[in-house]
Design a protein that fits this description.
- This protein has 141 residues and is an alpha+beta fold.
- The chain has a single domain (6-128), classed as Spore Coat Polysaccharide Biosynthesis Protein SpsA, Chain A, CATH 3.90.550.
- It has four helices and seven strands.
- It has a five-stranded mixed sheet with strand order 3-4-6-2-5, covered by helices on one side.
- Strand 3 and strand 4 (54-62) form a beta hairpin.
- Helix 2 (84-91) crosses helix 3 (102-111).
């Protein structure tokens, strides 16, 4: 799954994620370290160990406060997910904004012993999900 407002350039992040999926036989989520002041804008990873640029995920938290954030590693809109995600989405309740969050469905899978690895990519991230982010992205090229 690819979110269209999260653009990654200067690295083929998807290809690296496929290699990680094949190596660890797990689901994979793109990630990047963000400033502490930005954690509340993202889904954030909690991880049990780190090997090179790979985080072995033990939990995910959607838009936590800084105080409740388990790390500074944000979820960026690239996912390799199992087909079980569809049944997980069916039982996921709507969040505070009245939307079903993919993060909550992923959390359900993690809690039911499905392996997830976060890939901390080295490419350039362009956040086009807000007007400011879009304008800043245009300035980079």
């Amino acid at each position: 799954m690819v979110l269209p407002d999260d653009i990654i350039v200067k690295e083929n992040c998807s290809k690296k994620m496929i290699n990680i999926h094949d190596k660890y036989h797990s689901s994979v989520i793109a990630s990047k370290k963000v400033k502490s002041s930005e954690v509340s804008r993202y889904g954030i990873l909690k991880y049990s160990k780190k090997i090179n640029n790979n985080l072995f995920i033990s939990d995910v938290v959607e838009k936590p406060s800084l105080k409740n954030s388990p790390s500074n590693y944000a979820i960026i809109g690239r996912y390799i997910l199992p087909t079980k995600i569809f049944s997980s989405l069916k039982i996921t309740k709507k969040g505070s904004l009245g939307e079903v969050q993919i993060t909550d469905a992923i959390k359900h899978l993690i809690y039911n012993d499905n392996k997830f690895v976060g890939h901390v990519f080295s490419g350039t991230y362009l956040d086009c999900g807000t007007v400011n982010g879009y304008n800043n992205s245009l300035k980079k090229f």
